[in-house]
Every structure is written in structure tokens, then in C-alpha cells.
Design goal:
4 helices; single chain; mainly alpha
Amino acid sequence: MAKFTVKNVEFDFDIFDADNAELYEIETEKVRKESLKTVKSEKLSQKIRRIGNVVCQAIDTIFGEGKSHELFGDKVNLTDIALTFKQIDFELTKATNAEQTEMLNNVNKSND
């Protein structure tokens, strides 16, 4: 179970559960695609809200309803949202790598 904190909000997520891993992959891909999408004649404020909402929906889908509100409140600031999402990904990757190392060490010890 990966445990980490971003913006004083605690996260617990079992990335080694296949369903959770798949959910994470699907939601992060949605965010990536939406970030790259160009909508003709879209105003900057509309783009900020569109991308911000997709990221917040992904966070809530992955980590539980209301988690994005804990992070951002009612504000939709794309810089804050994007940096926070990137930080979540970094912290989850770091926690996952640490867990993998620990598991491999335990396997190696049991094989000795």
C-alpha cells in the first residue's frame, strides 16, 4: 500500500492491485489526452476549467470522491492542479518503487 502526502492531504493507494493499477492507467491517460486536445475557439478560461475538471475527476475516481476538493477547494487554478497531479504521480511512483524494492529484498532473503 503506497502512503504519501501531497498538500497536507494523505493518500493511501494499493497500486499493486490490478484493478487499481488499471484504473490509475485509464484516468492518467484521460488527463493526458484532454491536456493535448485543442478545441477550436475555446477561451482560456474554458480550457482551464475543462482540463482542471478532468484532472479533478481523475483524482476523485482514483483516490475517492472529494479528494480533489481536499486538495483545491473550489478554486480551479490550472497551474496548481497540474503541479499537484504531477506531484501525486511522483509520490506514488516513489512509494511504489520503495515497496517493490522491499518485496524483492524479502524474496531474496527467503531464497537464502
